[in-house]
Amino acid sequence: xxxxxxxxxxxxxxxxxxxxxxxxxxxxxxxxxxxxxxxxxxxxxxxxxxxxxxxxxxxxxxxxxxxxxxxxxxxxxxxxxxxxxxxxxxxxxxxxxxxxxxxxxxxxxxxxxxxxxxxxxxxxxxxxxxxxxxxxxxxxxxxxxxxxxxxxxxxxxxxxxxxxxxxxxxxxxxxxxxxxxxxxxxxxxxxxxxxxxxxxxxxxxxxxxxxxxxxxxxxxxxxxxxxxxxxxxxxxxxxxxxxxxxxxxxxxxxxxxxxxxxxxxxxxxxxxxxxxxxxxxxxxxxxxxxxxxxxxxxxxxxxxxxxxxxxxxxxxxxxxxxxxxxxxxxxxxxxxxxxxxxx
Amino acid sequence: xxxxxxxxxxxxxxxxxxxxxxxxxxxxxxxxxxxxxxxxxxxxxxxxxxxxxxxxxxxxxxxxxxxxxxxxxxxxxxxxxxxxxxxxxxxxxxxxxxxxxxxxxxxxxxxxxxxxxxxxxxxxxxxxxxxxxxxxxxxxxxxxxxxxxxxxxxxxxxxxxxxxxxxxxxxxxxxxxxxxxxxxxxxxxxxxxxxxxxxxxxxxxxxxxxxxxxxxxxxxxxxxxxxxxxxxxxxxxxxxxxxxxxxxxxxxxxxxxxxxxxxxxxxxxxxxxxxxxxxxxxxxxxxxxxxxxxxxxxxxxxxxxxxxxxxxxxxxxxxxxxxxxxxxxxxxxxxxxxxxxxx
DNA sequence: GTGAAAGCGCTAACAA
DNA sequence: TTGTTAGCGCTTTCAC
Lengths: 343, 343
Hints:
The structure is a homodimer of 343-residue chains.
Chain A lengths: L6 H8 L3 H9 L6 H14 L5 H8 L4 E6 L6 H14 L4 E6 L4 H13 L4 E5 L10 H13 L2 E4 L9 E5 L1 H14 L5 E4 L6 H16 L9 E2 L5 H13 L6 E4 L2 H13 L9 E3 L5 H5 L6 E3 L2 H16 L7 E4 L2 E3 L10
Parallel strand pairs in A: 1-2, 1-3, 3-4, 4-5, 5-11, 6-7, 6-8, 8-9
Antiparallel strand pairs in A: 10-12
Helix pairs in contact in A: 1-2, 1-3, 5-13, 6-7, 8-9, 10-11
Chain A binds a DNA duplex (16 and 16 nucleotides) through helix 2 and helix 4.
């Protein structure tokens, strides 16, 4: 492997000092036109590219952002990432992606790596920040790192935390969905999916129950059925419900994937959706519009979420003032799974 | 901002030299047990973490891999990435993700950035490496960089290239799908979607035609309908076909998303699938199993693809011998969109 | 076992 | 305008 070309090599051949080369590279000070040209010619000739490691080492900034998320194969996260990237590219940032499967150890590990790599900031999604009761220890770890590196939490929170957050108003979304079903005349509504110790689930359930009560309707605990966040959960829970004597007329699923599972089993059992049973999802991922019938759901505004996260982070990095919490309003998306097309 | 803690700080407080600290950090040489303990205590006390930039600068290795892909919101790519990550994490690598939308300029830019950041290797997917006639210039750019940084192309190629590649046998997949349809008795088959200048499309079309011919069947050019790779393409093309007097009895779609679009329009028009029309996709993404009816498709073995890419890259990085091309065999996945459940 | 010192490639005072 | 030089934080000979 031959010696990589450096500013010294360029400087030497151009018969100038390294600082002059650095100046034309960064435009930090005026350089005589003739020497600038000479240097540029050499840079092109050798396809010289400055070593970002060395640069970052002295400048104490890397222009790298770390993104921690639980599952890149869940369509929701790529969409947020896409929003992040769009917004941050123009600001010159690049990304480290860390997939954690939501496991605390992997999150800790990612945090460590990102710190070692000296990223300028971290965007944290999923895992511990969605636990309805996250341990002090896990929370403190994040808090400690945040003292050294700006962190923004996306769609989550930490106990007693003072960290900056960008969140969607999930309760509001759940309320809209529930009200929509009630307005259509549904009185018997069940809830499907999600772990009961994860805030994404509990917030929805809470808003769901509250909205039902506000409309003078009861929610039987028999009809709040937890599971995980997969398609299988939806399938199993629907199969379970179909065996019962008394069935709900509508199902509120924790997310789109679970809703798809529910739809599939219901359709196979010969039910018509929404006539025999209305089903709603949450997230408005691509799945919601590929199923038949298309799902009524709530958009999490994934792009917005990503964009805002970057903006907050960017301000944090530059020591600008930002409000602690940025709340994004969800949007109700009404489709065929609650309203038959023919209407 | 207070001064970040360094090896010097640790060394000073432990009353040893920095080299000793470095030794315990890396285990590169024996250190007396008592001094090691003293140092470790300090490291824990201050939560010291070595600066990876400085380390990489001297070691000339970053343990970072750059991943270039066209569209992270297309479910296929997160799956490959997942495979990449699983395999590479254990080897200690971390990832830079670059989304290019398939635009050559963004690819060039990503390549530049990755070089500046001194990544140890690059995994390249999508964009120019899928063009059926990529310009010399674009190809050369990649080739030039490959002289300095190991690169592996995933599911693509470059003209006259000698780069290492990991690919799925797409032609074989298309052949299996076509043969499957023929075996079911279909004689009138159309092809939907994809740009005609992208190899992912042309390879399939080629294999499709060849298999048809081998079975003594004709393919009318009227029935090879290009588009893009979206759901909309499938919708439009199906709408187009349904207007015609003579209709095919089966449709081969360039990928799952397009197939979903086709299914939706067909179902809305009152057709039964597969009885009135069989439809197949390609990729076996999550979409294939969420649609009703579930899609017969070909698995691209995205995980395998990712894993193998990393393995090849890793060997390249370590100057080990690897064969130029790794071919992964696709798998035919038969589901309801060609075979009715009742059978 | 341990320390001194050079060097990785770049930027940024400070001087000239 | 331009050059000199001192770091940035770490690893790694080479001595001892």
